[in-house]
Amino acid sequence: MFYPYFSCTGTMEALAGYAADILGADVYEIVPEEPYTDADLAYYTGGRADQEQDDPDARPAISGSVENMEEYDTVLLGYPIWHGQAPRIISTFLESYDFAGKTIVPFCTSHSSGVGSSADNLHSLCADSTEWKDGTRFGGGTEKDMIEEKCCWNLLYALLFNSIK
User: Closest by alpha carbon to 97, among 30, 10, 143?
Assistant: First the structure.
């Protein structure tokens, strides 16, 4: 099991660490080639994040790469919600690898927004044979025991009814 995640404020980073401990997943941080500043992340100011989210073709560059993606069948994809959607760097990530035949389970964080259509809007970036599971949203400040409870239940359900490996 593989858990790539993107985090600018540390919220998703903490959740990725919890999930790695609980599920035994290999973790990979999606790092932007040009790091985001506080000014870039300030909502509704016309900053970099606003500009990227307003441009469906924006693809921020990623620093580094995953060298053994072919080894994973299940990908837990972690990202924050920005303006109701996954950050555009997640599009860059998904378009950088072949997810054909893999299962992707999105996990997102938000202080206010739900998962919404964020995961649905990512489906077209992967092969038709990619199996997408329903996403889960965690609020800011979610503790490890909540992650454990929710992850274990969701994973058990998926194993019993949807054959995730």
Answer: 30
In which element (H, E) is residue 160 found? Answer: helix 144-161
What's the predicted TM-score (pTM) here? Answer: 0.85
Domain ranges, residue 131: 2-161
Long-range contacts (CB closer than 8 Å, 24 or more residues apart) made by 87-91: 87/6, 87/49, 87/52, 87/53, 87/60, 88/52, 88/53, 88/55, 88/58, 88/59, 88/60, 89/6, 89/30, 89/32, 89/59, 89/60, 89/62, 90/6, 90/30, 90/122, 91/58, 91/59, 91/122, 91/125
CB-based contacts of 145, cutoff 8 Å, min separation 6: none
pLDDT at residue 80 tops 70: yes
DSSP conformation class of 71: G
The domain total for the chain is: 1
Give the span between the Cα atoms of 20 and 40, in whole angstroms: 29
CATH of the domain at 87: 3.40.50.360
- Flag the least confident range among 49-58, 81-90, 130-139: 130-139
